[in-house]
Design goal:
Layout (H helix, E strand, L loop, with lengths): L8 E5 L11 H15 L3 E6 L14 E4 L4 H11 L3 E3 L4 H13 L2 H4 L3 E2 L4 H8 L1 H10 L7 E4 L2 H11 L3 E5 L9 E3 L2 H14 L5 E5 L5 E9 L5 E9 L12 E3 L6 H18 L4 E9 L6 E7 L4 H10 L3 H9 L26 E7 L20 E7 L2 H11 L12 H9 L5 H10 L4 H8 L3 H15 L11 H9 L4 H8 L3 H10 L5 E4 L13 E5 L13 E5 L10 H16 L3 E6 L14 E4 L4 H11 L3 E3 L5 H4 L8 E2 L3 H8 L1 H11 L6 E4 L2 H11 L3 E4 L10 E3 L2 H15 L4 E5 L7 E8 L3 E9 L12 E2 L7 H18 L2 E7 L1
Parallel strand pairs: 1-2, 1-4, 2-3, 4-5, 18-21, 19-20, 19-22, 20-21, 22-23
Antiparallel strand pairs: 6-9, 7-8, 7-9, 10-11, 10-13, 11-12, 12-15, 13-14, 15-16, 17-18, 24-27, 25-26, 25-27, 28-29, 28-31, 29-30
């Protein structure tokens, strides 16, 4: 059926600020939706409060409102813009809850605004635990035995029937917020009390424990003609009890028989029809008993989600884009697949490779926080590895974590076994280390309830590593190096096994001509030709990257989201790709973050979904032979690669080093006669305490080459100082620390500028409301500044200009005063 002509203006609701459980994936989904609707001729109005997103760039929608996402403010936008419809399914839980609130208070009816993509009744059934359970029973499907509690007393009565432990799941919350596993009555009272406070409807589901069962997700899509397809199956490596956002996941599902998969497929189709999601994507989660095959329906998200972003990047099927097209009346058979250009969207994707997602946590920022994982999501980002096998994809995903994968080689055996048993960010690393030490596959399975197939594959990865022990790098033949890479080992893993450095392995492999071949993500398992160069590396012979005489520029992305490096760098990378394309050059993106706009297949001319590490970036540079590589838009991750990736465009590696190395930067300021807090450069504990004795407290400890102020600390006494220095030395690696006098009671300013190497243009100055000592990323700031004297402003602008010219900045520069 054709697109709806009774609609002219459509309001899209964004997801607001980044929070755990609701991050980049909604910038991706909202941006796709806006572009798709405008391409169909609709006028698009966007409401969102997040300034770091591509979605809130003026060119994405016809009208953009940077306003709080509350009924009051969105109501004002509705009155002013008079939209015909609202699309609430691409703005996460925030967008969904807000649309429901506007429906409930009569705003939508009063102004003749329709909900498209999901109707209020479907949202209620999917999000209200009691209604969802009743709906599942109506179609003959089983949920876990449970009851709805509206008070703590209700919850106690329910567990008297179903027993402990019990799973607590609040209604209408995000990322499992307020939920958890209660092992006793005291924990039950605490968790239920918190869940009731966080649930907008003040209700929680108290559910029997199915801990240890296997967890699967199916991404489902439906159109107005009742065509339903399964986009992707996703299997959680971690068993039930760990939130899917905190679990290592694999697509497609690896341990289901075809009969089991078809059963889950039929259930997912029945669920989306019964819940009543008329159009668009939904995520349905199942628990499967590994001992007898029993299935329980866990829940359903009647909107795009983080799993939807993962499924989109895994298959090349743009879920958010097509969901928006379906919402305005198109059907799956009418929409052409962008990648094959011949198959309709009604073809279920089929993939001939494996993807592995690993979450990224930031517990090091919160040393007092419990690291145990449960039903409440705690990860701040994720990475995705693509390989021809599970082993290869796992190795690439681990490499993509960029410092987020711990080395547990020094742990005592008893401690290591505890880490294997406990669901925490360290568990995968502990399993790898345990298998290295000879812990059996059976013991790992008993301790973790991870399916034996996965543990055996991980054991094969360790076996490939151990086969290299006792070998020297010089003694490895080209075919042995290629076979090691095919088995899932990175250059870093080969280096560990052979006692060489990672750089030496990479350079030796390059000398021997052992380079990856690149395959295309094609959604149809190579049954149809892929016209989109969305690529991943493999160690096979045939290469599908394609040839071109056009001049190319490689842009390095920011890798996984983490505190201090998030959505804003994806925004910058997207703009870099746009600028390169506007100049008539080929924009080549390298990134491994499945949540982002930069890893959409149409953001750049070519996309390499690869780890942002030296070995993988060098391989892409070898394959593409670009004019150069752009580093400065992806945050700290690409900056660390400045000396290893070939020709750098923009600010040069030595200039980057001057800014990042505290000692060199301090020397530059001294040479330029620019004042800075009194301080000294140190490399070890002894030098640190000598400097502290000369300078006096309070002191600020600053490591070099760190992200988001990591390991920086204000110290008022020797005890604080000793701990801060130890941590700073650890994270700085070979780089020096700066110990300087902390200026109490100071006002802090951020100055941003652009430089072409000669001319410097100050773009803006932001004033921090908190006094200096609060990291700029955590400080409330105001723009333009309100208490900055004219002479201070002139001095700041002069200093920024002098620094930028002296360093040789070509591009962005930020100076803090």
């Amino acid at each position: 059926m054709p697109r709806r002509d009774d609609l002219s203006t459509i309001l899209v609701i964004g997801s607001g600020p980044i929070v755990i459980g609701q991050a980049c994936e909604f910038d991706y989904s909202g941006t796709q939706a806006c572009k798709a609707l405008r391409a169909l001729g609709y006028r698009v109005v966007l409401v969102n409060s997040n300034p770091a997103t591509i979605m809130t760039d003026p060119e994405v929608a016809d009208a953009t409102y940077i306003e709080p996402l509350t009924p009051e403010f969105v109501r004002q936008v509705i009155v002013r813009e008079r939209p015909d419809a609202i699309l609430p399914t691409v703005g996460g839980q925030t967008g969904l809850n807000l649309a429901l609130a506007l429906h409930a208070d009569g705003t939508l009816d009063a102004h003749g605004v329709r909900l498209i993509g999901a109707n209020p009744q479907a949202i209620e059934v999917a999000e209200d635990r009691e209604l969802f359970k009743a709906a599942m029973e109506e179609i003959g499907l089983q949920c876990a035995k449970a009851g709805i509690a509206r008070t703590v007393a209700d919850a106690e009565a329910i567990v008297a029937d179903i027993g402990l432990p019990a799973i607590i799941r609040p209604s209408f919350t995000l990322g499992g917020a307020g939920g958890g596993v209660a092992w006793n009555l005291e924990e039950l009272r605490d968790i239920v009390g918190q869940g009731l406070d966080l649930s907008p409807t003040r209700q929680v589901l108290v559910e029997e424990s199915i801990l240890g069962w296997k967890e699967f997700e199916l991404e489902v899509m439906r159109d107005l003609a009742d065509n339903v397809i399964i986009i992707c199956s996703i299997e959680n490596v971690d068993p039930m009890g760990v939130h899917t956002g905190d679990s290592v996941t694999v697509a497609p599902a690896q341990t289901l028989t075809d009969a089991e998969y078809q059963r889950l497929r039929d259930m997912a189709i029945a669920i989306i029809r019964r819940v009543g999601v008329e159009t668009g994507g939904s995520n349905v989660q199942f628990a499967v008993n590994p001992w007898n095959g029993d299935v329980r329906v866990i829940e359903m998200n009647p909107r795009v989600s983080r799993s939807s972003a993962l499924a989109s990047k895994a298959t090349g099927f743009p879920i958010a884009k097509i969901a928006a097209q379906l919402a305005v009346g198109l059907t799956l058979d009418e929409i052409r697949n962008d990648i094959t250009r011949v198959t309709p969207a009604s073809f279920e994707p089929s993939i001939d490779y494996v993807i592995v997602k690993i979450p990224r946590w930031n517990f090091e920022k919160f040393p007092g926080t419990g690291r145990e994982l449960g039903t409440q999501m705690k990860s701040v980002g994720e990475v995705m590895g693509i390989g021809r096998t599970f082993d290869e994809a796992l190795g690439k995903a681990i490499a993509s974590l960029e410092g987020g994968f711990p080395d547990l080689s020094t742990l005592p055996d008893d401690t290591l076994r505890d880490r294997i048993r406990l669901a925490s960010p360290d568990r995968l690393a502990a399993v790898l280390e345990g298998l290295r030490r000879g812990i059996s596959v059976e013991d790992v399975v008993d301790a973790t309830r991870i399916d034996p197939w996965f543990v055996r594959r991980i054991a094969c990865l360790i076996g490939a590593e151990q086969a290299l022990h006792g070998r020297t790098l010089a003694g490895l033949r080209p075919d042995e190096l290629r076979e090691a890479r095919r088995a899932g080992l990175t250059d870093a893993a080969i280096a560990r096994a052979t006692g060489a450095s990672e750089r030496a392995v990479t350079e030796r492999r390059e000398q021997l001509g052992v380079q990856p071949a690149y395959k295309r993500v094609d959604t149809c398992a190579a049954e149809f030709e892929s016209h989109t160069p969305y690529l991943y590396g493999s160690w096979e012979e045939e290469d599908e990257a394609g040839e071109s005489d056009a001049e190319r520029v490689i842009i390095l992305g920011n890798g996984p989201n983490r505190i201090g490096q998030g959505l804003e760098f994806d925004y910058a990378c997207c703009h870099a790709a746009m600028a390169v394309r506007e100049k008539g050059l080929v924009a080549v993106m390298v990134n491994c973050n499945p949540e982002t706009v930069s890893t959409d297949y149409d953001t750049s001319d070519k996309l390499y979904f690869e780890p942002v590490t030296a070995e993988h970036v060098r391989a892409v540079v070898h394959r593409e032979a670009p004019r150069g590589v752009v580093l400065q838009f992806g945050g700290q991750t690409p900056l660390k690669l400045s000396h290893r990736v070939g020709a750098v465009l923009g600010t040069q590696p030595d200039a980057i080093d001057i800014c990042e190395d505290r000692k060199r930067f301090a020397a530059l300021l001294h040479r330029l006669g620019i004042r800075q807090p009194e301080g000294e450069m140190v490399r070890d504990r002894e030098e640190s305490f000598a400097a502290a004795a000369r300078l006096g407290f309070p002191l600020l400890v600053r490591p070099s080459y760190v992200l988001g102020g990591r390991a920086m600390k204000i110290c008022y006494d020797r005890q604080d100082f000793a701990a801060a220095v130890d941590e700073a030395i650890r994270v700085s690696e070979e780089h020096p620390l700066l110990i300087d006098r902390f200026l109490e009671g100071a006002v802090e300013y951020d100055v941003d500028a652009l430089s072409d190497g000669t001319d410097v243009h100050v773009v803006g100055i932001m004033e921090h409301i908190e006094e200096a000592g609060v990291h700029s990323g955590d400080s409330t700031t105001i723009f333009p500044p309100v208490s900055l004297r004219a002479e201070n402003r002139r001095e700041m602008e002069d200093i920024v200009t002098r620094i930028a010219r002296a360093v040789g900045v070509v591009g962005l520069v930020n100076v803090q005063f």
